[in-house]
Amino acid sequence: MNHIDPSTRLFPLYDEKVLRGQANKIAWCPTTDLAVIAFQDHVALYRGGVTKIWSMAIPEYTTITSLVWKPNGKEFAMGCGDGTVYKVAVSWAEPRSVVCWPPTKNAQAAAITCLLWVPYTREKTVNANNTFDPLTGRLVSAIPALSMVPPDEPAPLLPRRTKKTPLPHEPTNDGEEQTLLLIGDANGHLYLSLNGIYHIGTVPLLQRFVASMCWETWTRFRCW
Prior knowledge:
Helix content is about 10%, strand content about 35%.
């Protein structure tokens, strides 16, 4: 039997970088060579994992517990121990972040344990042959489409003319694929956020289920 040198079967080293602090989390962009690395007190964006583009401080009272990229690679989300989720755009020379969870400032949020950002495409319940579709029971198929009609306002105590405030533009106007940001917390809840903007549902789950959520878990979850 011929002896095979183990070194010939290893992946070649692309590059290396000695970091100044301990990296707690790292996530690679699905479309480019960008990587986001979370440290104790800040998060940094690297190209190729070695060249730093920018860094952003995080609040002193929390830590980053999870990182995930949007499928198109233009944004990433980071979950924190205080229950906050930030969306960060990477198309600019400097970080631009916005809070996307919880939906209200006064909401009591549990620590974020995991994040998952997946494409969201509505599926027809009847296929081309008008026969039963085994995918009909998927969770995504059951989520109703968002209505762009402003809700009725409560009747005022005194008669007056009111004008309805239009809702935000429909998210499909930018021509990008719709996505679902799944947010799991320490209380065993799974929150569904359309494009990381609109909270469209909450699913109570077991804590151990949410803590170990991954792509395979999401695939099984859709088939329930």
